[in-house]
Design a protein that fits this description.
two-stranded antiparallel ribbon, 2 strands, 69% helix, 8% strand
């Protein structure tokens, strides 16, 4: 089963972890891989907010915690922005990255 099928499976964080693994082993072009990675991380973040963190589960390189998934999603959005060829799309992706960024106060 592919990542898209797992995204809509309702299988929670374990299914999303499997989806991310399938992305990593699939022979898809890098831009498509990053878009699907962002979708998986966004779905996982929503699941963590709804059902709670599962730090032992990893979605790709990131633990299934709000902080971990925010970091991964921010990175994915910034990578997509870096490869965007349309300025408006690039700005929207940077805005999306800033929206999920974990802000710290010094």
């Amino acid at each position: 089963r592919g990542a898209a099928a797992r995204l809509g499976s309702g299988g929670g964080l374990p299914a999303l972890a499997e989806a991310m693994t399938s992305i990593d082993v699939a022979g898809i072009e890098p831009a498509r891989r990053m878009r699907v990675t962002a979708q998986v991380l966004d779905t996982a973040l929503a699941e963590v907010r709804r059902s709670g963190a599962q730090p032992a589960v990893r979605i790709g390189s990131w633990p299934a915690t709000e902080a971990g998934l925010r970091d991964g999603l921010e990175r994915a959005y910034r990578a997509l922005a870096g490869s965007a060829t349309v300025e408006a799309e690039r700005h929207a992706l940077v805005d999306a990255a800033n929206a999920v960024r974990r802000w710290t106060l010094l």
